[in-house]
Amino acid sequence: MSVFEPSKLYSSASLFSQDIMKIIGSVTSPYVRKVRVVAVEKRLDYEFVLEDVWSEKTEIAAQNPLGKVPVLLLEDGCVYDSRVIAEYLDSRAPTQRLIPEGNRERTTVRTLEALADGLCDAAIAMIIEKRFHSGEALNQDYLARQAVKVDRGLAVMSQTLGKDQWMNGKAFTLADIACGVALGYLNFRFPENSWAKAYPNLADFFTRVAERPSFQQTKPQ
Ligand SMILES: N[C@@H](CCC(=O)N[C@@H](CS)C(=O)NCC(=O)O)C(=O)O
Q1: Looking at the domain assignment, is residue 221 inside a domain?
Q2: Closest by Cα among 85, 58, 26, 45 to 220
Q3: Scanning 106, 108, 131, 218, which has the fewest C-beta atoms within 10 Å of its C-beta?
C-alpha cells in the first residue's frame, strides 16, 4: 500500500518558505471566513493567500487534492478542511478555548458547527446549480431539497439558541462562529431570505456576533 503525502508530492517551496502560517482561501467562502474568524479570536498571526478555486488557472489541487479552500499551510504540510483547521488553531494558542474540553459539551459545539456548515453546503449547492444551469435545465427538485435544508437548519439554530446569549449557553464558542458565519453568508448571497424576521432571537445573536472585530475584519465582499 502506498502512502499519499500531498504536502511532499505537491507543495510549492515558496508557499512553505516562511514561518508564519498561511490560510489559502477567498473572501466570499463561509468556510474560509470561519477559520479566519477563529484565527483572529485566538490572536494568531496568519497570512491570507487569495485563491480563486473556480478559475481554470487554479493550482489549489497542489495543496488540497479535493480542490477546495480553506487550506492551512504549515511549515511541514497542508491542513484541510475547515473543521480540522479550526480545531488545530484552537489548540495552537492558550487563549480562551473555542472548543470546550468536556466530551459532551465539545460534541454539542461540533454538532452545531456541522449544522452551520451543512446550511452553507446547501446554500452553495443552490448557487452552483443556478450558475451552471438555467431555464428548463434548472433542477427545481434539487433546489427545493437544498432550500428545505437551509430552512430546517435555521429553525434548529433558533431553537437551540432559545433565550441564551450564545449557542452553547453563556460562553462564546466555535458554534457561535460557525452559526454567525452561516447567517452572514445567507445575508450576503440570499438577501431576500427573511430569516431575521422569522427568528428574532437569531437576529439579536447575529447583531452580537457581527460586532466582534473578528467578524468585522472578515466580512464577505
Ligand atoms: N467541507 C469543506 C468545504 C470547503 C468548500 O466547499 N469550499 C468551497 C469554497 S466556498 C470550494 O473550495 N469549492 C470548490 C469546489 O467545490 O470545487 C470545508 O469545511 O473546508
Answers
A1: no
A2: 26
A3: 131
